[in-house]
Design goal:
heterodimer; A: mainly alpha; 1 helix; B: alpha/beta; 15 helices
Chain lengths: ~25, ~425
């Protein structure tokens, strides 16, 4: 199915949450 | 580096092969685990002990009244145009035939519209065979679940359905069906693709096909249990990230794939985290659903019992469509929920499990909870051959692969941990 656009997610989540999730890797 | 710690421990480390070995021990010990059976209850006791042996202490069970349909002798003989045994599996909870069986001519329909367009006179007193081609499970399975009701409404004396699968070596596939209100309950069964197609060819040549169907079964109600294994969260223990699979199976095969694999990757999640001394902020709850096969009975009971606390379910996951190589998650939830899960899945590119598939109703049991607004996901995996084995004698350990199970267990555990540990809740619509 259609996946969410990257730009939409970036604005919805914000840099802080995206960085936090990335930190688990 | 939590992701790498979990992946390494399961794929290369001490836990390598453990999920497969424990699943094999379980399946070899208990075999099939039908709803309402004693063997299902013994298998639930075994799983509780297996969790206790791993020093998991927060284990509870919740009683559920479940159907107990027991298959007796079943056979179909084609009498005309020649004598031939027809392989079958009755659909639970089909009623029995009279002891002498039902002998009647067959009328074949490709879909429900064709049946509706037939006159009652054409159908009355006949055995109806539905022979839809498998497209998707969701589209085709209605011919298993509703054929008896639709055929009976037109006066049929029994109904048969072409097995719900793409592939067959003369293997019939069982499954559940539901009798509608106010219709005559007629016996109903699945036959193989080969025999359904044989009958179709004969009928299309205007050759009369007459069958004798004999089916016996019993039906009553028993008490079973959902099993909840909690790894308590450190900061928000009341909030739950649920991983789950169902412990019951059909009475044919051994339920290694459906849903032994899902059961054991969900058992593995709290076990792996406990062994690695990793405790997320929220509680990881592993649920072993009972009586999924006769109609999500355990899930409905859980939803009803916990309805007042459902706000505490942060995210719910289920594996019930195979534990082949993991590809990602099939996700239901708000746009922001999907974005969060999508970011988490990016962490699993190295094992090929970063695909996010949007799905309004992923899973089977968890669909009951997701439809109340709880975000959730099913394990998206390379399950192209899943329905070859589904609900057949072929559902055995030979379907399972130890390395793929390791990947699933590692992925399942790491995703659940991260969702349970990040600062933000998974937002609802």
């Amino acid at each position: 199915r259609v996946l969410s656009k990257e730009s939409v997610c970036q604005s919805l989540l914000g840099e802080e949450l995206i960085h936090e999730i990335a930190s688990y890797g | 580096e939590v992701r790498d710690e979990i992946l390494n421990y399961v794929i290369n480390g001490e836990f390598k092969g453990k999920t497969f070995d424990e699943l094999a021990k379980f399946v070899d010990t208990f075999g099939a685990r039908p709803s309402g059976s004693e063997v299902l209850e013994k298998s639930i006791d075994y799983m509780i002990q297996l969790a206790r042996d791993e020093d998991l202490k927060d284990i509870t069970t919740e009683e559920v009244e479940v159907p107990h349909w027991v298959r007796g002798e079943e056979n179909i003989t084609m009498l005309e145009p020649r004598v031939k045994n027809i392989a079958l599996l009755g659909l639970g909870p089909s009623v029995s035939t009279p002891p002498e069986g039902i002998t009647a001519e067959v009328i074949v329909f490709n879909d429900f519209d064709e049946l509706e367009n037939a006159t009652n006179d054409e159908v009355t007193g006949k055995i109806v065979l539905f022979d839809p081609e498998f497209t998707t499970y969701g589209e085709t399975v209605v011919y298993r679940s509703q054929s008896a009701t639709k055929a009976a409404a037109k006066g049929a004396v029994a109904s048969l359905v072409r097995s719900i699968t793409q592939f067959s070596i003369n293997s019939p596939h069982t499954g559940s069906q539901v009798y509608g209100d106010d219709v005559n309950k007629i016996p109903t069964a699945a036959i193989t693709l080969e025999d359904a197609d044989l009958i179709r060819r004969l009928v299309d040549r205007d050759v009369k096909v007459k069958l004798n169907i004999r089916m016996q079964s019993t039906l009553d109600t028993k008490t079973s249990r959902n099993t909840l294994v909690d790894l308590k969260g450190t900061v928000l223990p009341e909030k739950l990230v649920i991983v789950s699979g169902h412990i019951d199976s059909w009475d044919v095969g051994q339920g290694a794939m459906d849903d032994g694999g899902g059961l054991f990757v969900s058992w593995a999640a709290p076990v792996i985290l406990k062994r690695l001394n990793l405790r997320p902020k929220r509680t990881i709850r592993s649920i072993f659903w009972t009586a999924e096969e006769p109609g999500l009975v355990g899930a409905y009971a859980y939803e009803k019992k916990h309805r007042n606390e459902s706000d505490n379910i942060n995210f719910i996951m289920e594996s019930d469509e195979g534990t082949f190589a993991p590809l990602g998650l099939a996700v239901s939830g708000s746009q922001k929920a999907r974005c969060i899960i999508g970011e988490i899945l990016k962490l699993f590119e190295s094992i090929g499990a970063s695909e996010l598939v949007e799905d309004d109703s992923p899973g089977s049991d968890i669909a009951v909870i997701i439809k109340t607004g709880v975000p959730g996901a099913g394990l998206h995996n390379a399950n192209e051959k899943y329905f070859w084995f589904h609900h057949t004698e072929g559902d055995t350990m030979n379907v399972e692969d130890p390395d793929e199970l390791d990947l699933c267990a590692a992925f399942w555990t790491a995703v659940a941990y991260i969702i349970a540990d990040i600062s933000d809740d998974i937002p609802r619509e």
